[in-house]
Amino acid sequence: MVNLVLAADNIPRVPTTTELFGSTFDASPFALTIYCAIIIMGIALLMSLVLLVKVRNDTSRIVLADAVFYPMLGIYLAWSYLHETQIAYEVVMFGGLLGLLTSVSLARIVTKGRR
Question: What stretches pass through the bilayer (predicted)?
């Protein structure tokens, strides 16, 4: 018996939204609150990105870099409340620590080492 492989068999199939996000939408009050928080943090992230492009002052860019970084951590943390993951809190703790260190180091660079 000969197996014929047709060209159509090798085309990757696009997964449906049900396969990507599960069969049901969680509409509990907790989940809706988390979704609203993700949307609000996403809007804050986009507004910070727009302002980061428009501003020309270096010190303002340093502050806006934090304003972009921390909503990303918040979105990930809120997303991890609804999806099962094993390293959610480690990622957020590590990101928060690195965010603090980069903020301090960039501030020292801009102020040329003055305290």
Answer: 30-53, 62-81, 87-110
Model pLDDT for residues 16-29, shown as the tens digit of each residue: 656 666 656 677 88
- Do 52 and 97 contact (CB within 8 A), yes or no? no
Instruction: Specify whether domain 28-110 bears CATH 1.10.287.
Output: yes
Cα Rg, the chain, nearest whole Å? 22
